[in-house]
Amino acid sequence: MRKFLKTLIIFGVVLITADRCFYFVLKHSADLEVDKRLEDVINGNINKDILIIGSSRGARNIIASQLEKNTKYSAYNLSYPGSNIAFHKFLLQSLIKFNEKPKMVLLAIDDPEELVYNNSLNFRYERLYPLTKYEYINDEMIKRDKKNWFSKHINFLRGNKSNLDFRKKSFSHLDTIQQCGSMPIHSQNENFKSLYSNKEKIYNVDKEISEKVEDFLGFQELCFQHNIKLIFCFSPNFYKFNRSFRDRIQLLCQNENEIFIYDTLNPIYKDPSLFYDPVHLQKKGAEIYTKEISNFICNKH
Amino acid sequence: MNFISLTFLIFILAFYTVYWMLSKKGILYQNILLLIGNSIFYCWVDWRFFIFLVLTISINFFLGKNIGFNLNNKKLYLNIGVIYGIGSLAFFKYYNFFIESFNKVFSLFEVEPCLSTLRIIIPIGISFFTFKALSYLLDINKGKIQPTTNYLFFFNFISFFPTILSGPIDGSKKFIPQLEKEKTFDYGKAVDGLKQILWGLFKKVVISNTIAVSTTAIFADIDGQGFVTLIIGCFLYTIQIYTDFSGYSDIAIGVGRLLGFDIMKNFNFPLFAQNIADFWRKWHISLTSWLTEYVFTPLSIRFRDYANWGLILAIVINFTIIGIWHGPRWTYILFGFLHGIYYIPLILMGKINKKKKFKKGKILPSLTEVWGITKTFTLVMFTFVFFKVETITQGFDYFERIFLLETMSSEHEIPKLIFLLCFVLLVIEWLGKHSDYAIQSLFDKFPRLFRWPLFIIMIALVLLFNGEEQQFIYFQF
Q1: Closest partner residue to A161 among B191, B452, B465, by Cβ?
Q2: To probe the interface with B, which of A3, A161, A162, A164 has the most B CB atoms within 10 Å?
Q3: B241 Cα to chain A: minimum distance (Å)
């Protein structure tokens, strides 16, 4: 028994040493990332007047640098394709914690998937894994049951298999992030059918997920508590505007938050050459839409 | 309490320490402690059925004594035991399945179904502890063992926590004598146990859980996959289920060894089986041995007048029972039935009992061996499609898309890491195939300076790959 315990203790010491050394891998993982926006948030480098948050609609359709030029406010796009409202709320919380709070937040609404189940809109944990060297990120993972409490002290538990990919990441054709954080697209999806749909969809409230509604309200509450102006932005789709969904968002819209809807009567949004697919604009479409938002901000604020 | 959880780690550390601290106090203390450990473990997993477990143990203990010592009513007590065991399994696991099937048959004849299903919660581990209890009674009846007169030993035999949830289904003949013997700490056994646990964890957490992401995606959207992806899908699912179940068995056996017990082997490198008979000699050994002893052998004796056809019938029945044992689904029954059918050529060629063994010291397999392994693996992996899908129609859809060479492009792209992990698994298993488990003596030739870093890498990988909790597939059985 004594021999066994002795061997176990020596092995334990070697294991702990290896675990301590793994910290260098964790540290290096963040450097390999090409999307540094979340790390910039944690390091307090995003101090802007206007912040754009959303999923791919926010990332592709709103160009922060153009907004900056048009409105004279500094702006940054912190939208992550495939992210949901819970992730958006986490982003805003983090931003407020580590940076100067923005004057205004533009939340790009996923019309009509914002509050219902959609398997392509998730909490983007894989953006957090390379940053687990930061206590704040690891605590968030513990809070969300993705890590256990021991990960506070054991680096192997703090890490993830993605930490073992030592290749430098690079931008893909679609996800090239500009300096301002936006990710406009320059091409069209080959499967895109250029036939505008005039059929208006009816939004079904029964399909909503209560957690998403709570996060949506929580996002508004966060802005209210920190005196941040919140604007919900509806971007153009290549089908008829869904008024029943707008009514639902209007019903949930609290305090003095505003809703911005693109010019639904403008025939230009029926031009297929502006679109990448039915729900995302190409760069030239994004420029038109961003101009509309800029005018809205300049006129109202 | 999942084996791969912090709760289990704390439980086993605490139990292990107390167990060996009090080991010098004698068998009684060891067994009382084991009883407490077994009870805590089962209650933690599902306290609602602890009473049922105790009842099953008590009834079988009583019946066992009467079968052994009350020779006049031996048959009666045995029948009660078999009816109780099979009856509880039938009720908890198959009642709704039978009712639904009957109702379907009635509706075919336009008769209004009159039987309703019940909301039944299945006691965890019921298939495993029921089979243990049954074998105990049957062995006493045949005079192979004497009934134990110590309730404590019997309780610990049935409820032994490392094996109660998913086996191996240990026989009383080998296990009860271990409980009756005072255990002393053995350094070699403890180290061996830890190594086997590590290998089990590696297979489950690193390999099985990683593959599970792809197989889940492929089987969830069969129509969206090309035939190549579907073929790879069944290959991967075979590896997944093997690493999942053998991983569990390795952890269970390893924990048993830490406590000084020798638990029967459940897998013997089945991925390298050279024919279907060889496969079942290597896959889920404890279940196959149980059924061979108590179902197949009596059946084959009964059907011996029909020569090969009698043997075929016995085998097909035996394997259909294996299918049913897994659960109340037609897909499992078809899975078992197909394996029974696979035996027919072997029986007709008289090769069923021919044992295949690899020569020691030979690194590469011969061409005949490669052919045997490939052929068997392919046959087996296709049957596992029925193990994964929920309805037989889904299974046939899967094959239809494969054989019609439906599309080349797939919705799901399988990560390269999965292929790397499969390759690593197959190489390690091949190199360690002459041991009880792959890494048992694989690294022993190397000095500690080289061996320890390998173990540390394995531990690191287990911790790094350990994401969200994933249940073992065989927990549901």
Answers
A1: B465
A2: A161
A3: 21
Range of the domain at A209: 21-300
For A26, which residue in chain B has the nearest alpha carbon?
B464
- Cβ-based neighbours of A104, under 8 Å, separated by 6 or more: A49, A50, A51, A73, A228, A229, A230, A231, A297, A301
Q: How many other C-beta atoms can be found within 10 angstroms of the C-beta atom of residue B418?
A: 19
CB-neighbour burial class of residue A117 (10 A; exposed 0-12, middle 13-18, buried 19+): exposed
Does B109 reach chain A within 8 Å, measured CB to CB? no
CATH of the domain at A183: 3.40.50.1110
Token reading at A183 = 């990710």
d(CA B428, CA B426): 6
Q: Which of A145, A146, A156 sits opposite B464 (nearest CB)?
A: A156
Question: How many CB pairs (< 8 A) connect A and B?
Answer: 42
What ipTM was reported for this prediction?
0.82
Which of chain A's residues have a Cβ under 8 Å away from the Cβ of B465?
161
Work out the minimum CA distance from B423 to partner chain A, whole angstroms.
18
Is residue A3 less than 8 Å (CB to CB) from chain B? yes
Total count of domains within chain A: 1
Sort out which chain B residues have CB atoms less than 8 A from A156's CB and list them: 459-460, 463-464
- Evaluate the CA torsion angle B407, B409, B412, B415 in order and state its sign: positive
- Assess if residue A65 is contained within a domain: yes
Where does chain A have alpha helices with state H? 2-32, 37-42, 56-61, 64-71, 85-98, 125-128, 135-143, 155-158, 210-225, 243-252, 283-300
User: Which residues of chain A lie closer than 8 angstroms to B417, CB-CB?
Assistant: 161
The residue among B437, B370, B422 whose CA lies nearest residue B214 is B422
Residue B465 touches chain A, beta carbons under 8 Å? yes
pLDDT 10s digit of each residue in chain B, 477 long? 788 888 899 999 999 999 998 888 889 999 999 999 999 999 998 888 899 999 999 999 999 999 998 778 899 999 999 999 999 999 998 888 888 888 888 887 877 767 777 777 888 889 999 999 999 999 999 999 999 999 999 999 999 999 998 879 998 999 999 999 988 899 999 999 999 999 999 999 999 999 999 999 999 988 888 889 999 999 999 999 999 999 999 999 999 999 999 999 999 999 999 999 999 999 999 999 999 999 999 999 999 888 889 999 999 999 999 999 888 899 999 999 999 999 999 999 888 877 778 877 788 899 999 999 999 999 999 999 999 999 999 999 999 988 887 666 667 788 999 999 999 999 999 999 999 999 998 888 888 889 999 999 999 999 999 875 556 666 655
- Is residue A5, in this structure, part of any structural domain at all? no
CB burial of A123-137 (b: ≥16 within 10 Å; e: otherwise) equals bbeebbbbbbbbeeb
β-strands A275-277, A280-281: how paired?
antiparallel
Question: Mind listing the pLDDT tens digit for each residue in A193-227?
Answer: 878 888 888 899 999 999 999 999 999 999 999 99
Q: Cα–Cα distance between B230 and B219 in angstroms, integer?
A: 8
What is the pTM assigned to this prediction? 0.87
Domain membership of residue A1 (yes or no) is no
Contact assignment for B460 to A11 by CB distance below 8 Å = no
Closest chain B residue to the Cα of A4, Cα to Cα:
B187
Q: Is residue A73 part of a domain?
A: yes
